[in-house]
Specification:
With 224 residues, the chain is mainly alpha-helical. The protein is built from eight helices and no strands. The protein has two domains: 179 residues, Four Helix Bundle (Hemerythrin (Met), subunit A) (Up-down Bundle), CATH 1.20.120; 31 residues, no CATH class. The longest helix is centred in the N-terminal third of the chain and has 32 residues. It is globular and about 65 Å long.
Amino acid sequence: MSSSVDLWYATRATGLAALVLLSATVVLGISTAGRATSGRWPGFARAELHKRVSAATVVLLAVHVLTSVLDTYVHIGWASIVLPFSSLYDRFWTGLGTVGADLMAAVLVSSALRRAIPARAWRGLHWLAYASWPVAVAHAVGMGTDLRLAAVDALVASCILAVLVAATSRLVGALRRRAARPTLAGPQLRRTYRGIPGQRAIRHEHLVRATGPTLPATAPTQGH
């Protein structure tokens, strides 16, 4: 009985720790992809920290899944590790946990095969890490029995707030950079397209959009 209780506590502890690290991974990924600058945290340092936190998240997630299956207090089953919604215990919320674990596994495999797959495909698979975060939060909220504790509620709320702040900051920064981007007009457009064969139509279209249609210097006079 004591071993089952120990596994139960280990499952709860590793689940919460994995959620915290996954949230940190998402925040670091957002800040790194957003090209945020900081004198104390250069880009390469954030990228390296992101990699290490991601590895720790995967380790904790693996321990969380293993202790969940080995726990005899509830019957989850080995198949539920990879097959969502196949567990007999709390099927829906356990299934969400399986979905999140499968998404993280896809990110892990794609990272290991990064040099063997196209960059665009790798970036698409890497976005699954962001998709796994709301699934993991839903799994923790729906299945966690510790949410009646104020400390656990505060921990989960802090994870959600951190990700929302990071995502909002990146969105605002992207909008500001787009608004500050200079627009070409008049002479700048002429210098940009000068000497490029086959660009006369494009240049004319851009000039019309930037400066408006040109009018002749003198209007033609009608004869009597």
